[in-house]
Amino acid sequence: MVLLLFEVFLFQYIGFVHEHNMYLFLVPVTFFLFAFVKEVQLADNAIYKTLRTLSSLIFFGHLWVGAVVGKLLSFISEGLGDSWLKFVISLIVTIIWAYIVMKLSERKKFKLLSYLY
Predict the structure, then answer these.
(1) DSSP of 34-47, one letter per residue?
(2) pTM given for the model
(3) Other beta carbons within 10 Å of 61
(4) In whole angstroms, what is the distance from residue 74 CA to residue 62 CA?
């Protein structure tokens, strides 16, 4: 992680950064982070089913919700572009959307929504 942060700041300092999406140390960081998380032992808890459902809905819905939010925000303000504000707003809307879909799918009338996850 330290090497990845060093690389990010070095690329920003020398003006090499264009999109913030391609770094050399990202692959080793991902490998070692996955190896670490794989070894973590968690006690059983009832909330894990809810978190698994929410994470599936967030995964499947984020691109769709992000596109809709991005389109709506482009009508409001042209200068947002690919900003952090746009990301945060789309993330919050995605989490709210996932929670609503999960809660609605628990009702008999909306049982078909459970097929989304």
Answers:
(1) HHHHHH------TH
(2) 0.64
(3) 19
(4) 18
Tell me the residue type at 21.
Answer: N
- The 8-class DSSP code of residue 19 comes to S
> 48 Cβ partners below 8 Å, 6+ apart?
42
Q: For residues 10 and 29, is the Cβ–Cβ distance under 8 A?
A: no
Task: Check pLDDT > 90 for residue 27.
Answer: no
| Residue that has been written with the tokens 């999109």 in this structure | 19
Number of other residues whose CB lies within 10 A of the CB of residue 113? 17
Helix 26-39 × helix 2-14 angle, to 10°: 160
Cβ within 8 Å of residue 65, ≥6 positions away: 90, 93, 94, 97
Indicate the SS3 state at residue 100.
Answer: helix
pLDDT at residue 89 tops 80:
yes
The length of the chain is 117
Q: What are phi and psi of 79, to 5 degrees?
A: -85, 0
Quote the pLDDT of residue 52. Answer: 92
